[in-house]
Amino acid sequence: MKRYERLADDIAGLIRNGILTPGEKIPSVRHASKTYGVSPSTVFQAYYLLEDRGLIQARARSGYFVRALAGLPTPEPRSDLSTQETTDVGVSELVFSVLGSLKNPHTMPFGSAFPSPDLFPLARLARSMTHSLRTLSPHDIIADMTAGNPDLMRQIALRYMVSGVMLPMEELVVTNGALEALNLSLQSVTQAGDLVAIESPAFYACLQVLERLELKAVEIPVHPRDGVDLKILRERLASLPIKACWFMSSFQNPVGASLNESRKQELYSLLCEHQVPLIEDDVYAELYYGERPPKPIKTLDTQGLVMHCSSFSKSLAPGYRVGWVAGGRFAERIARLKLMTTISPSVPAQTAIADYLQHGNYDRHLRKLRYALESQQDAMLASAARHFPAGTRVTRPAGGYFLWFEFPDNVDSLQLFKLALAQGISLAPGPIFSASQGFRHCARLNYGHSWGAESEQAMALLGRMLRSF
Amino acid sequence: MKRYERLADDIAGLIRNGILTPGEKIPSVRHASKTYGVSPSTVFQAYYLLEDRGLIQARARSGYFVRALAGLPTPEPRSDLSTQETTDVGVSELVFSVLGSLKNPHTMPFGSAFPSPDLFPLARLARSMTHSLRTLSPHDIIADMTAGNPDLMRQIALRYMVSGVMLPMEELVVTNGALEALNLSLQSVTQAGDLVAIESPAFYACLQVLERLELKAVEIPVHPRDGVDLKILRERLASLPIKACWFMSSFQNPVGASLNESRKQELYSLLCEHQVPLIEDDVYAELYYGERPPKPIKTLDTQGLVMHCSSFSKSLAPGYRVGWVAGGRFAERIARLKLMTTISPSVPAQTAIADYLQHGNYDRHLRKLRYALESQQDAMLASAARHFPAGTRVTRPAGGYFLWFEFPDNVDSLQLFKLALAQGISLAPGPIFSASQGFRHCARLNYGHSWGAESEQAMALLGRMLRSF
Fold it and tell me: Which residues fall in a coiled-coil region (chains A, B) (predicted)?
């Protein structure tokens, strides 16, 4: 154990034992450096680690604080323990029945895949739409349709530059949301019958896409905090003809795990060694709660092996359906697949977002959005601690808007899903996130909606149902 | 030969011999009925036939006139004579090299797939966008995204009702343009390796989609005026396990042919007999030059076998990327495939079009658009007659914005494409419309842009190139 890890553990102990209480400011770096007799950089590293673990949080210009819920005893869920090597995927029916249940607007949307649309600057975006349509020439419409709107692409490339990726414009393909980017990326490197390494649990659309394309899943367990299990991935890559990996490196859906930088480096080396392309689903990249954005694996991609997929749907413009992929060496193939499939995302949606990114103060909106989501996480965690039975485990992601609950073994989340829905509460039951339909006592809950008395009542009701098993 | 056909041939003779001259009004139905001693309904039938053949045209409330170019001697092209039964498709590379050539905005866009964006009410649409975004509630954005915008779907269903189809809302799936509708429809009824009957020549994206999905083409020749050859289709359906047909019933791309109503009925009976679904690509439906819209095969679809695909891209809102499919018995499967692929077309684009359809006077715009396209067809036909060599054949479609030329046998259209492009003129060479890369002495020319001195010069230049072979 390194010195900073030991220091982090010491402080974590103070938090768990209630010596440092939720909301309390922890010692400044200078102060801690003197107190513990270590260098300021060791203190910094320890604090980053604690922040990663969701125990403390930085507030701009005021230092580090113990997170409101850091002291709660709810432990984190366990990793997937299944040992199956490959799986035929057949989860779609189940997913559609869950999605169908979300249509009722009076349902408490814990099962939703989207954060509340109230969190987004829709009126400001509408002004950008009006402005950009006024200046768009008819002939640009046709040009933008095949190649993508150049202003939008420049703004996306600029954001990559800030995060350390110099992206040639030819690598960028603008798509109908991230889902099309992911679909086309996968199609660009696989054929029916191929093996694809995915996470377990995984984003259900990933499972559906594999099913539709007749691909086989190689499920790699995801640790609730550290992310995908690299030891098992290494074994599978060595023993199976895996054609692609599809992973979320940050705030993984559903568990919220992120790979740290050294694990990202290790994963990238593995990919290079086997020359296996990575489809990096990074749709929650902007929803980090820490001081600095997580670095995508794309930042390491010297060989063009990474297809980095994201969108504006979760961070700015829900329903506009504008996403993209930085496609590495597969970009041209992806662009061509897009021309055969949908041609282009809506041009007005592209120009409106481009105008907003230039003039709308995106970064201020993102700061507010992150703060709202983080506070709502605290609220849901506190509520779960009050209402859910002993033996419940939960993740504490450092970004996004999902909590992943592991309930006591006697809970059947499909049964819970039905019971809850009858009471007007939706949730996303564990089996929809698994090709092998595991995770029967797990569920994903969405905290992307403002917290209020009704949310609290719904959690209390869920708690009573959980106890009834 | 029936009485009305004989009468039509007589009048056609008068036109060809220059007795009735271009632009001249032909006798009223009452007058002709007396003169020829036949019933008014026989005269009507004869006039509809002449209109179908592009020899005369109706003008609202003023009667029938000889079409400006009806007297030209250029004959129509011949049908495909190939006898191959099934074909592996591999045309994508060629298509992309042609499409890539269109990017230069200074090129004369005879090779383009789009009509000029100047023909569309873009400013009025932008006002509809501003207005609809002002009234759209944030929560509708999420609801519209999964199910489609209800106002838009109602407007689409209304237009179906007017054309004689009572469409249950559940049958309608809103998509990212017609191309996504076609893709998903095809996927909903086929698996890799299946046979699909398509037209020869066919829309090149149809060939690309077959190639991508690893389907095999059964090419059915298209007569330049009457449409797909039903005799050959009947034979193929009887002898081959065809899983789906993909046809354009009106203004077929590239040749412009339309099936008349009795041939549509015959085709539908064939489909029912073999229980083979039809993907009906009807994107030019609104661009008819006659008095009445052509009836899609969907109007006959009592069994839910027809997936009728269209969009607003060619008639109202280029670049908005909003299309749909009336999916018959396959609608639910198509809707699910869409949720796995792109989720939804852009919600603002949907609401803007819905607002325009309600308040924008769509029908007035369409009348102007049809008139512009028809006049431009006359201009291109006249120009071709002036400049292209003897032995050139050409279609005279009763709608859309493409002419299909068959040049003398010594012309190589791929060679012509290269020569023309070097002079700043694009065109769509015949082989991109054929799985077997036939039609080497054919080309599709787009007349969807306003005609002027530059267009005339480009045609003259093409004429000189054609003579050089």
Answer: none
d(CA A289, CA A376): 12
Per-residue pLDDT averaged across B319-324, rounded? 97
Contact A339 B99 (CB under 8 A): yes
Which of B346, B426, B432 should we substitute to test contact with A (largest number of A Cβ atoms within 10 Å)?
B346
If one counts every other C-beta atom within 10 angstroms of the C-beta of residue B59, the result is 11
pLDDT digits (tens, 9 = 90+) for A418-438: 999 999 999 999 999 998 888
Asked if A145's CB is within 8 angstroms of B319's CB, the reply is yes
Predicted-assembly ipTM surpassing the 0.85 threshold: no
> How would residue B82 be classed by pLDDT, with cut points 50, 70 and 90?
low
| Interface-testing mutation among A98, A142, A185, A283, with chain B (most B C-beta atoms within 10 A) | A142
The answer to whether B340 contacts A126, with C-beta atoms less than 8 Å apart, is: no
User: What's domain B87-118+364-468's architecture?
Assistant: Alpha-Beta Complex (3.90)
Q: What is the pLDDT of residues A218-267, one digit of tens each?
A: 999 999 999 999 999 999 999 999 999 999 999 999 999 999 999 999 99
Domain ranges, ordered by start, for chain B: 3-66, 87-118+364-468, 120-359
Nearest Cα residue in chain A from B192: A192
Share of chain B above pLDDT 70, in %: 94
Count of CB atoms within 10 A of residue A393's CB? 18
Kindly report the backbone phi and psi dihedral angles of residue A408, in degrees, each rounded to the nearest multiple of 5, phi listed first.
Answer: -55, 155
Nearest to B370 by CA among B297, B291, B452, B271: B291
Q: Note the pLDDT of residue B13.
A: 73
Among the partner-chain residues A116, A177, A341, the one whose CB lies closest to the CB of B183 is A341
- As a whole number of angstroms, the distance between CA B194 and CA B191 comes to 6
Strands B63-66 and B56-59: antiparallel
pLDDT, residue A25, reads: 82
Res. A70: pLDDT tops 50: no
Give the span between the Cα atoms of B54 and B257, in whole angstroms: 11
DSSP letters spanning A103-153: --TTSEETT-SS--GGGS-HHHHHHHHHHHHHH--HHHHHHHHHH--HHHH
CATH architecture of A121-359: 3-Layer(aba) Sandwich (3.40)
Nearest residue of B to residue A128 by CA position?
Answer: B130
Domain A3-66 CATH assignment equals 1.10.10.10: yes
Q: In chain A, what percentage of residues exceed pLDDT 70?
A: 94
The beta-strand segments (E) located in A237-305 are: 242-247, 278-281
- Tell me which H or E stretch contains A56: strand A56-59
> CATH number of the domain at B120-359, please?
3.40.640.10
Topology given in CATH for the domain delimited by A88-118+364-468: Aspartate Aminotransferase, domain 1 (3.90.1150)
At A146 the pLDDT is 76
Tell which residue, B177, B128, B109, B204, has the closest CA to residue B313.
B177
